[in-house]
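I hope you will forgive my troubling you with a question about protein structure. I am sending you one protein, given as its amino acid sequence and as whole-number tokens for its backbone shapes. Thank you for your consideration; the sequence and its tokens are set out here:
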Amino acid sequence: MMTNNGAIENLPPQSPLTPVKLTSQDTFQFRCHQDIACFNQCCKHIDLTLTPYDIWRLQKRLGLSSADFLAQHTVPFELDAQEMPGIKLKTRGNTTECPFLTEAGCGVYADRPTSCRYYALGLMSMKAKDAKTDEDLYFVVKEDHCLGHYEAQEQTIGEYVKAQGLEEYNGADRAWRQVVLKKRSSGPTIGKPSTRSYQLFFLASYNLDGFREFVSTEGFNDVYELEEDIQQSLQNDDMYLMQFAFRLLKQVLYGEMTIPLRADAEERRIQRRRELAALKGEPEFEDRGYDEPIEW
């Protein structure tokens, strides 16, 4: 719980989180470098949630497809009590170590995940009830092993964020964070999304190669009316594809309509279901109406 002066109440007794919210203009003291006595200690005890852009950067770094990266380097978990799917980085063997840790430091430093870049800060996105957009707030994380807080370097949080290359990461993931934030803030008011919606969330969030195949299917293009230049961008531009995926999530989960539907989308959908039912030898498909954004 957060108080009016920015402090957080009801933290666990041993929480490393300093209970004061900060903005990008606030300063904090911290520096990490190879000569510090605790170097690499934080990387030996990780619990890293990966964002869509984290996954894309790492899979490109390793030369893997989305599916192969997910299979080899991640484990699934639930982002909330309603089982919204999340992804964490798989640790090394039976340890809690980062799989990319070397004696010289991070083996993928230029493409390290968002959480690594923020350390020793925590990020919380919040949206006031009547606000048009979300706000980023920060918290200092002080773990017992970390000596970086005693280094004589002070900077604003904004300066630290820029120095860590986080502006690019935050920009790429912002629309996705808004999807997750809206789900969390709405709670039971929107109900638990369907299994199909969660499948789409996983595909659009974490498996960009699979999502590219999905938007090129006949079924998808029977429903959504996309200009040829947009279709080409979806096939050739990963960042365009990623942002399109987040727009689709907002449309499917929350009805924020930014992707045009074909005028005959409903008829096409019904006809396609009838054809599939016939192929499977099932009873003739009976349409019971469709009052929600189109799901997959």
User: Anything to note?
Assistant: Residues 12 and 19 are 11 Å apart (CA to CA).
